[in-house]
Structures are given as structure tokens and as C-alpha cells.
Amino acid sequence: MSVARAIRKVFLAVEQAEGAGARVRRSVGTPSLRNFSPFLMLDHFSVKPGAGFPDHPHRGQETITYLLEGAVDHEDFAGNKGTIGPGDLQFMTAGRGIMHAEMPAQNADGSANVGLQLWVDLPKHLKMCEPRYRDLSASEIPTVDVDDGKVHVKVISGQSHGIDSVKDLAYTPVWILDIEIKPGGSIAQPLPEGWNAFGYVLEGSVLVGKPGNQTPVDQYHNVVFEPTGEAVFASVDAGAETSGRIVLIAGTPLDQKVVQYGPFVLNSQEEVYQAFMDYQTHTNGFERAKGWESEIGKSMKSRGLLNGNSHMNAEAREGFSIKTNS
């Protein structure tokens, strides 16, 4: 029997307003969970038509967007654009600099567009790499059923019970597993030794740990694991009325200092100040930002939903202040 990873903490991701009219439950990147390399932020977002994340820059990190409901359009200053729908993912490497917008679909029934966005740090030697995108459609994600079909795993990135994910999606090694557990179902999911790992419960309630030493983790809660141990054990009580759904995420820790200034994530304050100057002067990776406006963000601007400079308004979403960890 594998050694279970112990739980470090469990906490609720409290809903808050972000961006231009969006709502998010942020767990990673809050006082409850910081300095958890390579992870910088996890947002469970809900964006209704008319709201969104208009033009804003990034440098030094990767973002992974996993859409659960609705659709989201994206567009950047290099001419890349597209739409992701339910179950689709977008892996974006900001590298030396990107300017983009992420805007929700205008659903006829007025329903919100819901998903997860994970920020992952880049190793120091890749901070100034060229930006790139990797899209992963729902139909491309391999799945595996365990415990006589009572557990269904989407292997977005990593490995589960003999099934490997699509390769080469992000520079920083990260595993992402979307696990749905029916009442009475259980799973033992191995994780790489020493990797930092956490789980976010999307639906229902999940029992984490081996029988006899289980902790209930409810919807919208984040469970953080100790780095030692071979596997995460999860189940749903046989008497539960609904299934439980947990997204299990693990990544290799990076031995480097993190200095974050809103959407810029570097390794020193000097590099962050340089990123801000490069963005303001349209140099060193931000040349194409000069005079650029996304088409998908213009509708929000025309309706007067942005105050002042739309770029800086969007940056307010990221908490534009210096955050340092070592």
C-alpha cells in the first residue's frame, strides 16, 4: 500500500470581485497559500456577458486556462486569437512579454462563463523566452476509469493509472488531473516525489486520506499536501447524494526567488522595474504593444465599463503591487 501524502491545510477560496465585472474564488496567491512554487495563483472565475479581462500584459510566467462552462475568446498583439469552449484548455507562455485580452462569450441565456486559471512560474533561464500558446481541446484529453467505473479521471497533464497526457504543453513540469468520484468510489493517485501538490474541490464533498484517517474537503475548498508521500487518496462517502469532483494539481518546485509586480513575475526587484519600463516604453519584447488594442476588448470600452487606461484597469485585477518571496 502506498504511503499517503499528509494534509498541510484546508481552506475556503472566498469569492471576490476582479477585473471588469468578473467574480473569482482565488486560493493560490492569497494569504492562505503563498510561496508554493511553482504555483503563483489559482482563480476559479465566473464571468458573465459584458464583463471580462481586457488588454493587459504579462512577463515571466505561464498561464493555464481550463474552461468548464461557456466560452472565452482570446487575442494578443502578435495576431494570435481564438476561442476555447467547455473542457478546452489554453497554455500560454508569456516569456519576455505578451499583451493580450481574455473576454467571455455573450451567451444568449445570460449565463456565466466559468473556469480555472492557474499561473505557473517559469525557471529563471526561460523568463525571457519567446511567447507561445498551446491549445488542448476537450476531445484530445485522454481519460481513464478506475474502481469499477466509479471514478473518472481526465488526464490533462501527467499520468494516471497507466494513461499519459498529451506532451509538451508547458515549460514548467505540472500535472493536472480532473477527478470525478461517484458515491462509494475511491482512488489512490500517485504523484512525483517532492513535488508540491494541492487539490481544489469543484463539486460536492471529497474525503481525502486513507480510511480511518480521512478529512472531508467541501466545494470551493483547497486542500494542500505535504511534499512527502507517494500518493493522494480520495473518495466519496457511499451515502452521499452527489458525486465529488476535485482537480488535483502538482508541480516541480523551482529553487529561485520570486518577485511579482502584478502581471510581471521575475527574480529580482531590478528585473521587475525593468519589465515595467519595457512595457511603458514598448521595448525588449513589448514593441508590438505600442498603439495596440484588441478587437474583443473594444466593446467593453465603448460601453464605458473601463475607467481610464484599459491596460492599467486590467492590471488592477492582478493586484499591481510588489510581492516578494525567497
From TrEMBL:
Keyword Iron listed: yes
Residue span, Pirin C-terminal domain: 177-284
Domain of life: Eukaryota
Binding site for Fe cation: H56, H58, H100, E102
Cofactor entry: Fe cation
Pirin N-terminal domain location: 22-120
InterPro entries: Pirin, Pirin_C_dom, Pirin_N_dom, RmlC-like_jellyroll, RmlC_Cupin_sf
Single GO term (MF): metal ion binding
Coiled-coil stretches: none
Keyword Ligase: no
Recorded family membership: Belongs to the pirin family.
Name of the protein described by the UniProt record: RmlC-like cupin domain-containing protein
Annotated organism of origin: Podospora didyma
Lineage: Eukaryota, Fungi, Dikarya, Ascomycota, Pezizomycotina
